[in-house]
Design a protein that fits this description.
single chain; mainly alpha; MetI-like fold; 3 domains; 17 helices; 2 strands; 76% helix; 1% strand
């Protein structure tokens, strides 16, 4: 039985268990004088039965799927000839990978040896036996769970308390898992960045003015030692993001104010969805728009004014990126402005303030924490954008304050460094992790600043 079919079977049994538990609760309640004698609503008895059916079965299924490949691989390796078992670990892993490819029907490079073919057949038999055992165990656990809870259902059973406890444990486990995933991401980037800083000094990386991470394969080749100064990359990121925010924040905030305070319901019902469509357009489409329309327009306009404009410029990428992130500012700002209590508006108008004064002095300051959150989300989106920068701003790490020149960003360089077959002992590849760590630190500082602004104005208006 395949994994998908097994999961569907468990979910089906859970649905059946829900109905059985619910019906038994109704039946016991009617015998004892009505549903009101039950400790919990019949729905909770059904949920408890479904949860006891699904949770143990799915936990066993998950653990089995996690440990099955390594266990089968160890059994296969122990049965291989000694000359293969004693191979170096890297070559032995290639042999195991070939065996798995044969089992899955993938093409294996080179001629298949008889012992490898025999091992693949053994692997397939073990896998088939494992799947059969898993199907029997999981199905049995699901049925036993239904039977146990069904027999324990009685009017005094605290089904609601048990269901809420199970959901509480699930929510805590989910939160803990998310936290550990975040910690794992940070630590993985940190460890690789430390390996990079053992080769390239931290001061050279942070304060260096040249970025040329290309490393030669041999020491006698030209350019065998790259330059890893991150200032040009972060300067390009800051320039493009600043241009984007100069476009997105005023337009987005003004759009939100108009839609929430001035526009009628009919116009708002049409304009807001149309504005939010901008967030759903693929970034590659924005990249084509920037490369084929905006960049040539800026270049031709600059030539007509006697300016030296590059065919790929930070201005073109920043303008298009600003258009793309307008919905992040306008939609969130519109929601938080609408959430400001009407009593605050009425109080300001009653004191003689005009509508525009009410918006400037009361509504926007009261909604400022949410507006800052929307702007911060837009900044994060701008910093993390890659496709528009590649197509409109280029890959050149130029240290310049001229928005008419080609620049690059941190995310573009990370993608460039990690594309294709890479040697993870090379400073060129490890530089991507150093860039990611520094970008994480910059984003963290932005979050701290935003939290400071939010707390300051919350204390004032709450």
């Amino acid at each position: 039985m395949s994994s998908t079919v097994l999961i569907i079977l468990v979910l089906t049994l859970s649905a059946i268990g829900y109905q059985l538990g619910r019906k038994r609760a109704y039946s016991l309640g009617e015998r004892a004088g009505g549903v009101k004698v039950l400790h919990s609503r019949p729905t909770y008895y059904g949920l408890l039965t479904a949860l006891w059916c699904a949770i143990p079965a799915l936990l066993i299924f998950t653990a089995w799927q996690a440990f099955e490949p390594s266990i089968i691989s160890n059994i296969i390796v122990s049965d291989l000839p000694e000359e293969i078992r004693t191979l170096p670990e890297s070559r032995l892993n290639l042999v195991i990978n070939d065996i798995r490819n044969i089992v899955s029907g993938n093409i294996v490079s080179g001629e298949i040896k008889p012992e490898i073919q025999k091992a693949a057949e053994h692997y397939k038999n073990l896998q088939s036996t494992s799947n059969g055992a898993l199907s029997v165990i999981v199905t049995s656990l699901a049925l036993v769970g239904i039977l146990l809870i069904w027999r324990k259902i009685k009017p005094s059973l605290r089904a609601r308390n048990q269901v809420e406890k199970i959901f509480t444990v699930f929510l805590i486990a989910s939160s803990t898992f998310a936290i550990f995933i975040t910690i794992g991401i940070v630590l993985s980037v940190l460890f690789e960045a430390i390996r990079f800083f053992r080769v390239v000094p931290l001061t050279e990386f942070i304060f260096g003015l040249d970025w040329s991470p290309q490393m030669a394969i041999r020491a006698d080749q030209v350019g065998s030692s790259g330059a890893f100064g991150a200032i040009p990359v972060f300067a390009g990121t800051l320039m493009i993001s600043s241009i984007a925010m100069l476009v997105a924040v005023p337009l987005g905030l003004m759009s939100a104010i108009y839609l929430s305070e001035y526009a009628n319901k009919q116009f708002r019902a049409v304009a807001k969805p149309l504005l939010e469509i901008l967030a759903g357009i693929p970034t590659v489409v924005y990249g084509f728009f920037a490369a084929l329309i905006i960049a040539p327009f800026i270049r031709n306009l600059g030539v007509s004014l006697g300016l030296d404009v590059s065919s790929e410029s930070a201005l073109a990428a920043g303008l298009v990126m600003g258009i793309m992130i307008i919905p992040f500012v306008s939609s969130l700002s519109d929601d938080v402005i609408n959430a400001v209590p009407q009593a605050m508006r009425d109080g300001a108008l009653a004191l003689g303030a005009t509508k525009s004064e009410t918006i400037k002095q009361v509504v926007v300051p009261a909604a400022l924490p949410g507006i800052v959150g929307g702007v911060l989300l837009a900044v994060s989106r701008a910093i993390g954008e890659t496709m528009i920068v590649v197509m409109a701003a280029g890959l050149a790490a130029n240290l310049t304050a001229n928005p008419l020149q080609a620049v690059t960003t941190v995310t573009v360089q990370i993608v460039t460094l990690l594309v294709g077959d890479q040697e993870f002992d090379s400073p060129k590849t490890l530089a991507a992790f150093a860039l990611g760590l520094l970008l994480f630190a910059v984003t963290l500082i932005l979050n701290i600043i935003a939290l400071y602004v939010v707390r300051k104005y919350r204390e004032q208006y709450e």
